[in-house]
Amino acid sequence: MIERLNIAEWVVLGTLAFSALFQLYWYIRYLCAPIRAMRGKRTASPEWKESDLPPVSVLVSARNAGTDLESYLSALLTQDYPVFEVIVVDDGSEDNTREVIERYLTQDTRLHMTFVPRDARVRSTKKLALTLAAKAAQYDLLLLTDADCVPESTHWIAEMVSAFQSPIPDHLSPINIVLGFGAYFYRPGFVNRLVRYDTLFNGLHYLGAALCGKPYMGVGRNLAYRKELFFNSGGFSHLMTNRAGDDDLFVNQVATPDNTAVVVSADSYTWSPAKRTFRQWWLQKRRHLSVSPSYRPETKRRLVIEPLTRGLFYAAVLAAAIIALCSWYLLSLYLALALFLLRWILQTVVINLSAHKMNQHGFNPLTILGLDIFLPLVNLWMLAVPRKVNW
Fold first, then answer.
1. Pairwise CA distance, residues 129 & 143, whole Å
2. What is the per-residue DSSP string for 102-152?
């Protein structure tokens, strides 16, 4: 029966086999890397004595975040850590953000405040806010989060900072960047599932890539780096033409396999409320994607390969099924179904095992399959049909 195949059919089956093998390799190497790193490392802080932990400056940019600070600022100030400060920057807020910060200032001397003027003539006031906070920081280790974030536990600072001093094999230089994961709270509904899945998938990707020696981004909800690195590299000065990118673009420019570490222990995560409407998520997603053209060329090439092979895989599965229906060559159908089910099972196991280990709700297999197809199409549309981003 093999002799009955024409060139087009051989191309379809070859594409199917190649794309399936690449996808399986990609899942096992990169998305499984955080799971492998979690083994036996549910928490890091008990391994460290109090005298071993260096002082830390926690930086928070707050824009119209009075309600968020009321809810979450106390969680930063009650961290179980010997020496730290929290610097909150009022980024030109028009609500009660400054009043909330000032009220906390009277209660805790470790809290400090600075501000960005409302009429600041810069393209990215958040980058300016974080630069001001970094300049005001007393300590060399800078730990970043957002005003709407709450740490998983009182050991969050200790968990993130422990990576700066962990002995990591093959690292020839000191650890200067630590990547953490920022999760979203669970709520019933499709939009919440969409946001959480997209965040988990991207998180496993950038954490896994860093664990495999290919760091390319981080998220400002949970990110740490040395003050010396920030200013020696020019900070955000070369990124000010981008409205976003205070986290991923900066990491993309300065991270190397030798200076970057990852923390995925149980107490190291931060949590935020997810967008509640599809439009809000769409605008947030477009804003994040708007900086991707500024990634390093090698990063852009790597980021294109996975969705490209994913699209080829689904197209080849469909084409193989059509071949089987038209020629009654059932071997192509059996091969397509076997590879499709193998990838789907692996995907479901990896996503849900990761979600479980990271204290998140899992996803049913049909949701995973649907979003696996839907999200690359969204990304492609946003990149191919640019729109003015509503900041």
1. 14
2. HHHHTT-TTEEEEEE-TT---S-HHHHHHHHHHHH-SSSEEEEEETT-EES
**Cβ pair 87, 137 in contact under 8 A:** yes
pLDDT for residue 222: 97
Q: Please give the helix or strand (H or E) that residue 89 lies within, else none.
A: strand 84-91
Q: State the pTM of this model.
A: 0.90
Predicted confidence at residue 386, as pLDDT, reads: 63
The residue with tokens 């193989």 is 320
Residue type, 160: M
Query: Is pLDDT larger for residue 128 or for residue 353?
Result: 353
What is the edge-to-edge ordering of all strands in the sheet holding 270-272?
Answer: 150-151, 270-272, 182-184
pLDDT (tens digit per residue) in 171-200: 567 899 999 999 999 999 999 999 999 999
Q: What CA–CA distance (Å, rounded) separates 4 from 167?
A: 59
Q: Which of 242, 269, 266, 264 is nearest to 253 (CA)?
A: 242
Beta-carbon count within 10 A of 45 CB: 21
The two three-digit tokens of residue 55, written as one number: 């002082």
State yes or no: pLDDT of 221 exceeds 70.
yes
Strands 150-151 and 182-184 turn out to be: unpaired
Residue 298: CB partners within 8 Å, gap ≥ 6? Answer: none
Residue 363: predicted pLDDT: 97
List, in sequence order, every residue forming a beta bridge with 142; answer none if it has no partner. Answer: 57, 225
Residue 145's DSSP bridge partners are: 60
Spatial strand order of the sheet with 223-226 comes to 111-116, 84-91, 56-62, 141-146, 223-226, 177-179, 260-262
- What percentage of residues in the chain have a pLDDT greater than 70? 89
